[in-house]
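Sequence in, structure out.
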Amino acid sequence: MHIINQTFFYLVFLNFNCCSLAGTDTPQLDDECLKALRTLAVSENPDLQQSAAIYYLHISQQLKTPLPIDFLEPYNALLQSSDLEVQKIASLSLVNLLVEENVDKEVVVQTGLLEPILDMLESGDHTVQCNSCACVATLATSDSNREAITSAGGVLPVLVLAKSYDPRVQQNGVGAILNLTRCEKTMSVLCTEGVIPLLALLLQSPDSEVQYYSCSALSNIATRPEHHPAMLQLGNRYLLRALLSLMSSPVEKNSCQSCRCLRNLSVNVSIQEELVSLGFVAQLREMLQSPSQPVAESAITLLSALSEHSPNREAIVEEGLLKTLGQLVHHQRTNPTILGHCAATICNLSDSQSAQAVAESQCLNGLLQALISPDIMEEELLCVTACLNHLTSFELLKSHVIGKLNAEHAERLVGWAGQTENDELSFNSASIISQLEEQGEVCQVLTPHTTSILEYLLRFLRHSEGRFQQLGSVTLLNLNKDAGFSAALAESPLMEQQDSRDLLHTTMHTAHD
């Protein structure tokens, strides 16, 4: 009788607190509340267990602070209840607590809740499956939990639920797979159990979230080249074709994720050649023209990787992508990702045969405008100066650059050539100046900077690297051919220094010999 009265007291206690929760943001979580939950959770009466589960649901909806660890203990009994409603309510409340980060994910596993959660994956009820899958997906965001889930045999049940006809269950199942692929060890287990064909099929799902999770998981797997053979052995290049199809998705994040997956796969040269043969360069052009910056960023990142492999370049140029790149760098030069990859791609695609196509595009205009942009970052500046340095090595393009170069460009280039913090930027900038100096028009914009130019040339001549010494010597000889620059050089204050005069004299004499 005492036990019955005590249980009745706890039931009334929790019901009262549930009603009180509606008017407060702070659920009651004291020792008396914990005793009530422990007692009701282990009851053989489903109604009493439901009262405890409902109280946890209210807690999960109201709690703004971490749940005390001791309050996780009653979950063990609730999740293993023989009553389906108790399982549904308790698992939903646990999902809420995990998603809102009101419980520590590692602690949930350490307190022994992983086993009942995994058991519920095999429930015949879709709601229980959905909630337990959501728990696994959230727990799998932790490295240690991923290994625990794998060791406890959680991989196969998750794979089964990823094939579910219930869209909620399937979505959470694929979400769990995605998080499990974030660890190399669990990724290998998934691949051994056949996750790759499943994910490839799910790329064609009518559910855009399932598509996204599947593609993201494949992107993770594709970071490991040892899995590439398994990804490509699906008949008739099924995976590549499915990814190319997803590139055209109206859902932005899916289009971007397919590019990332292909980018990870394209470290394999044979895959690059397969993609080009499937005609996907035209799809990339459409993505590059997208008004969406994330889509354009994903496309240019992939194109940049493809352009590094010389056999791909002809197809890219023939598809007219230099014109597209010119428009992109012209309109998106303030976007560091787009600017950097555009400069690298233009550099890769430019040779004597494509010089005319570069000249007819807006590539040079965009790069020169980026050069004087106040927002350009150092990493992108390195890409732009390296690209311009390469382009000015072609006579046709050199003449176009000369026609567009102005005093502001010259001032920036001289300043970067003279700075000492970044050797590559200094070399690129000085090399551009060196290749343009033979034209009188360019020398006119360089003349006001004679002293600065002489300073960095003297530094180059004393540099430990031979390429700097060579560049300094060649630049000095060519600049000295211009009468105006030669006269300004003679009047420079630096020429009053004996060591500078001796170094320059030796350089000129050696070069003439």
